[in-house]
Amino acid sequence: MKEFMKSKMCLRFSHFIVIACVLIMSCLGCSKEENKGLNIGIIVPLTGGAADFGMWAQNGVHIAVEELNEKRNRKIRVFFEDSRMNTNEGLSAFKKLVSVNKVSAVITSGSGVVLGIAPVADADKILQLNHAAVSPKIRDAGDYTFTLVNDADIETDEMASLVINKLGLKDMAVLYANTSYGVGTKDAVVRSFTQLGGKIVATESFEEDSADFRSQLLKLRQARPQATYFVANIKDSGRLLKQAQELGFKTQWVSYNAFESPEVINTAGQAAEGVIYTSSNLFDTSLTSERENSFYGKYLKKYGMAPNIYAATAYDAVYLIALAHENTDGSGEAMKNFLYKIKDYQGSSGLINFDATGSARKPVFLKTVRDDKFVIYQQH
Asked: How large is the average pLDDT for residues 307-326?
């Protein structure tokens, strides 16, 4: 009887061991399966005067995630945080995304936000893909920070060449937002134009999301600039152009690719006509790649409006992070090294190659507003 009971207990213990092993293996399998997933944080302005940047990022990201999750076993999850274009808000959002949401990478915009996050991203070995900020300082911000748009130096060089060498306008004024990207772009404008023999006759700054620009505009008007470069968010761009027209301030207005938003035309109306600006993307079926035009078509169908460069770069950022994650062990360092080796990646924003500073230099195109539409600039 004792032998029988002993045998029965051994059998029960064996069953317990088997069940425990199955449970352990099952849990390990779950962990392995969970590790296949990829978490990405999106730190963009969702409110305030720069909220359009957040909208473009959201739209581009959602299309990329939908496409990738349809064809991958590794599901991608994205977590959005509102930076309000504020450095401290952006840094707090980054820390939350890393500690709570366990993200492997973040997609960001806003020069102050990108620069604030960069040293922490280096320390934590978290990829940061800047899809919209243009401050030249970002080039030296950190090894884990990559940029998908041209910095201000590149675009202001192109604009200076047009204004001085082709339009023959030498006297330039600058009207800029008192922010990291505003000051950085103003400095780039001054450098670009003076190097080509231009003269900066006046500079005026304003606080972002201002309602009234008349004081600055009247001072600029007194200086009689032949051309005026303005650096502003979408809402401010429309308002300042309209107020300049009301004041009878006549100058050749020029700007950079953040200007390209239907909201500017809706706000400024006729005052936006003839503004010349630089852009890194054409979305012209005769001049761009199949990938670019495919994205353009999907975006137009899904959102009922054309995308701009920032929607395209947000879309590309998701794909590049997913590509790096899929082709490495998923560690921050391995993913970073993978991106530095990327060669001729065809994105929706154009061909992408990262240089030693993590910057992807793009071709620069000149565009303008004609008959309430954004079109390729052609000198008459």
From this structure: 95
Kindly give the interhelix angle for 309-326 and 51-71, rounded to the nearest 10 degrees: 40
Q: Where are the chain's structural domains? A: 38-150+285-363, 153-279
Q: What three-state secondary structure class fits 137?
A: helix
Residue with tokens 């009878």: 248
What contacts 24, CB < 8 A, 6 or more positions away?
A: none
CATH 3.90.180.10 fits 38-150+285-363, yes or no: no
Query: 220: which 2 tokens?
Result: 């600029």
Q: Is 274 left (phi over 0), alpha (psi -120 to 50) or beta?
A: left
CA-closest candidate to residue 131, choices 49, 77, 75, 59? 59
pLDDT digits (tens, 9 = 90+) for 22-61: 443 433 433 333 446 899 999 999 998 889 899 999 999 9
Q: Is the CATH code 3.40.120.10 the one for domain 153-279? A: no
CA distance 223 to 23: 78
Confirm whether 38-150+285-363 and 153-279 share one CATH topology: yes
Cα(341)–Cα(6) distance, integer angstroms: 64
At 329, the amino acid letter reads: D
